[in-house]
Each structure stands twice: as C-alpha cells, then as structure tokens.
Amino acid sequence: MASIREVAAEAKVSPGTVSKVLNERGNASISRATQARVREAAERIGYHPSSIARGLAGMRMNAIGVVMAYDEESLTSDPYLGPCLDGLLSIYKQERQKVTLFLEQNWDAALQNIPFYGDGHCDGLALIIPRTTHPIVDTLRSQRPHLPFVLVGDSREGEGLTCIDLDNVSAGRMATEHLISLGHRRIAAFQGNADFCSNDQRFKGYRDALASAGLPYDPEIVYPGVYFAESGVENVRRMQKQFTGDNRSGRPSAIFCFSDSIAFGALEALRKYDIHMPTEISVIGIDDLTTTAQQRGLTTIRQSVRSIGQRAAIALLGLARGEITPGFRDLQLPELVLRSSTVALQQ
Amino acid sequence: MASIREVAAEAKVSPGTVSKVLNERGNASISRATQARVREAAERIGYHPSSIARGLAGMRMNAIGVVMAYDEESLTSDPYLGPCLDGLLSIYKQERQKVTLFLEQNWDAALQNIPFYGDGHCDGLALIIPRTTHPIVDTLRSQRPHLPFVLVGDSREGEGLTCIDLDNVSAGRMATEHLISLGHRRIAAFQGNADFCSNDQRFKGYRDALASAGLPYDPEIVYPGVYFAESGVENVRRMQKQFTGDNRSGRPSAIFCFSDSIAFGALEALRKYDIHMPTEISVIGIDDLTTTAQQRGLTTIRQSVRSIGQRAAIALLGLARGEITPGFRDLQLPELVLRSSTVALQQ
DNA sequence: CTGAAAGCGCTTACAG
DNA sequence: CTGAAAGCGCTTACAG
After folding, report:
1. Chain D nucleotides with an atom closer than 7 Å to a protein C-beta
2. Where are chain A's structural domains?
C-alpha cells in the first residue's frame, strides 16, 4: 500500500494537501491545478488510505459492529438472528460499510467485551435482542466516550435508547382482539421468555385487549414459558391437568401463543391430548415463520424480521453520521395473517 | 477510553514501559514491582488499548475478513454460504477474533475492493468460493504487502495457495464408482457451473473412475449446467430428447449429478417424463443436503460444509500467525451415503 | 492557495 | 531495569 507521502512526493505537494484534496476538505481553497495533479498522482500510484490511520486521526471507520449472543451452534439458521442479520447485511452491503461481527456466548460475555467494541474498530453497534434483565444496555449507555448503538428486536422504554422492533404491544392486542372478535372469552396466554422485552409488551397488549372488551383478566390462564416449541407442549399439558373433571368447563377456548414456535408445540400437544383444533380450541401465534405456519394453517401475527434488520441498519448509519438523534424509535406495524387455526367460538 | 499515557502517569512509569508490561514483551527485563504497579494501574483505570493504534504500530488486529460474493437477497439461507459462515464463525468466536464481513455483489466488485481489504482492518482473508475464471485470486496473491488469505470451497492447484475444500476428485470418483459397482455402464454426468473449480475436479473423478473400470468415456452423455435444480430438470429433458425412438437403447441407466440440487431437479423431471427411478434410472448427487436428501431417498456423497468452514478458519488463523505456510491444503474426505435412488442395473 | 507542525495511541529499537 | 525518541499513516488547526 502506497502512503500519502508517496502521493505527495509524486504530486509535489505536502501530505496535508493531498489529504485535503482527497477528502474534499479545503475544496474551495485549493487550486484546480493542484487538485488535478494530486488526484492524478493518487490514481497513478494506486493510492488507498489506511483506514486505521484515518480512524486514529479521528475519522469515521465506515464499519459498524453487530453484537449477538447465541449459544446454539448455528447462527445462520436461527429463526430470528438469521433473517435479522440478512437484513442488516443487505443495507451495509449497499452502503459499502464494513460489518464486524461480535459473536458472544451470552450477554455476560458481551458485557465483558464492551472495551473491544469501543477500541476504535467501529463507528457504532447494533445489539440484537439484548435481555431486559441484563445490564449491558445501561453500561453501554454510560460509556465514555459514547459509542452510538441501536437495539434490534427490543423496544424497551428508556431515555435516549434507539430501538427498532415489532410493535409488540399492538401485536399482542391484535392477536387477542382477533380471538375476541370470534367470540372467545377465555383466552389463555402462552408466554415467551420473561427476560425478553417483547414478552412484557405482548402481554400488555393481551391485557389491554381484554380490558377494552370488558373481559375479566384471569391470571390462572397465563402460562409463563420460553419462545420455543417445547414450551407450547409443556403448557398445553399444564392446562390440560388444570382443567380436568369438574374444572373441565373452565378450559380456555383459545390460546394466544407469544410466538409461532410456541404455537407449533401447542398444536402438537393438542393433537396428542385429542383436543380438536380449531373446533375445541383456537390457536394464534406471532411471527409468521412462513413455510411452517402455512403448512400447519396457523393464524398468526406477522413480523418481518428481515425488514427490522434493514431499518435497524439504516437507523444506526444515521446515528453514526449524526443525522438522527438517540431516542429514535421505529416500530413495525404487525399484520394479522388469517389461516385455519382460529374459528368462531362453538356454542 | 483511557490511554496508555494515563496508565503510565498512574503507575509513574513511561508509556513504553506500560506497553512492554501489558504485552509481556520485555518480561524478564522489568522488575516485578514495576510490573505489578503497571498492571494494577491499568486495572484501576479500566485501561483497554486502542486496536487501531496498535494496528498502526504494526501489531496484529485480531480480526479477519470474510469475502463472499452473492447476488441473492439472503446470505444466511444459502445452502453453502450459510453453513460455511457458521463454521468459520464458530471458530473465531472461540478464538476471540473479530470477523469483518466483506459482502460483494459479485467477484468483479470484490476485485475493485481489494484495497479496502488490505487497508489495515484485517490480519487475513477467507474467500468463499472464488471462481477459477476470475482474476481475484491472482491479484490478491501478487498484492504488496501480502495479505494472507485462504480459499474456501476451492482447491485449485497453484503455487502458494492455501485451500480448504472437499476432495472433489475423490467425490466424483466415489460417486461414479458406486454406480459402476452396481453394474451401470452408461453413466450420464450432469455438471455444475463451469467456472467452479469443483466442477472440473468432480468431472475428473468421473473420468478417472470410468477409465479405471475400463468403461468408455462418451462426451454425448456429459451435460454442462449449473449447480441448481433447474439444471437437473433441463438436462433430463435434453437427455430424453436425445434418446428417443431408435436411440432409446443408448439412454444412460444412471445419472451422476454434480450436486444434490441438480439431483432434486432431475428426480422431479424423471417423474414428469414417467421414467421410473430407480428401476429405469439411478441417480446420485453430491452434498447431502440432509433434510431434503433424506426425504427423497437420494443416494449422495456427503460433504460437511460447516466443518470446511471451521478448518478454513483454523488454517487462516495459522497463516496470519505465521504458524503454517501458504500452500497448505486441507481436503475433506467424501463419504458415500446410501439411500434408495441407486440400485443395481436391471437386466 | 499551500505547507510545517502537532497529534491520534500505540510499539520498538536504542541509550543509559 | 527504565525512559526518551522516532515512527506507524493519517488529519487538522494554524501560519504565512
């Protein structure tokens, strides 16, 4: 790699002048002739500036970092991380930004590694689904000097937090309202991980919808869990045990699963217990994991994770360039996808 | 971020001394007392060195670049790129290296961007399946100063090229020998993209196997194509047209598809033409795209792309650290996976 | 309109 | 055993 000094020598100017010309800094104050000479010399030598030298001199690196915590062996096949990363990458590719991946085993490891994120490599950070229970976001926020960052798949409230996510409250409300509109009055909630921001928000949407419809909220039919199929299986079993014999009549006529995965587990378990879906019980999910959801006829609330990734990339770019201010929120509107797993309450 | 100067001030030594202690350079020549004082000061201040400053001073960046060209909209779902990236990432994660993704639309764009790869960000590069027809590898090789790089999914011959790949010649030979062992004597070859190194190699394996068995090589039943299902469909059609009427008897009794995707296309087309598989024609692929190959009962030659990614990561790390020398080759042994799409030649 | 100088935060011979 | 100095390749006030 030729250095700026060689260009300077070649063009018979000082390195400072080369820098100004190539960065279009002193634009007006440099003679056309010199500019031409510099550009031509740079071209001839095949000069390309050292990004780390520019970075050290205080310029932008044109690189952003993506922080993900996952303990699974596969990143690319994760139903959230995969599409989300695809979305981010599609934008950075197009904007010709470098992307540095910070792959962490978990958020504790990420917390330990914050110094590496801020060591000069990157202009900003995208955190994919940090957990609300985890201090990483607060630590990052109080970091000096401040490294711009956006939260992806997380839309907690918080001073100066930039968030890109599904509008989870609306999604929870929409799912619940759909069931209510079909005449259901006892609607179970199969929750996801308690440490995900989305879980609280979807739950809030659920309660809001019940309240608006004047329906009672019954904590007995709210089932904590995780965002995986096993949790759907487990909670159907729990519900089945709970509403047996005399209690049989109290059994919910619909289940709002906080994710499609949970719903798939629930469908499987319902089949095992010979509870007919949808005549005996309706099921709705959130996500629209398209292929599978379509195959199984799951009514669900769609979110486009890929597009969330894209919007996050755009927001982070804006943040790093100072074009948008921290605190910007971009929540994707949910969309109801009607299939066959939800039907009107059978009298 | 505190700088090395603050640590120096805190420990009442010079910055140079701090550097030596923290990098364990002058280890022996620095008093235990000073070492302790420096470490303690660094700890107290929460010092973390600037990676770009170290890079500029000639140290390793602990970051490697991954170059991929893809025009599809999704990287993570690509059947080769996805698992390969997963494999690479799993190693870098464990080795605590940063990974910078260079996402290119195509290899021409990659060629243009070589200066960015070598601008100080990375210690080395992994190129995922560069095309043999493309000058990027030669350009990279003649670059000064030289940036270490490995070829992933490409094992062309070439002075000083470090390659990690499936042993494609063996794979081609194994597939063909399997068919020969079943009594087949007219074996069609459905090739992949001509600009992939693997295509030539698999083809070589095919011809080698025929030669070893004393079978004639017939260019009439070698079908150029691409590594996609459509190509399998298209080539069955071509073959069908070719061996109709009087020529009917010359039709191959087996097809060696250079990828599973091609094989899936071929199976589909055979069904359409009412050619019964496997009794009328046997089909073998390469890859073992497990779920689908299993569903369709495809006999195939397995390669573990994930493990190729992992080996590539390890090789690149070794190369960047100077522990292995350019020219190192690591070829994965193929493995025959028997299913129902190949049977003994029916008399 | 252009250049000399200082500085970004490190490391590494070289002196002492 | 430790420090002062030069250098990595840039940019940016500041002079002139």
Report:
1. 1-5, 7-13
2. 4-49, 63-166+306-331, 168-304
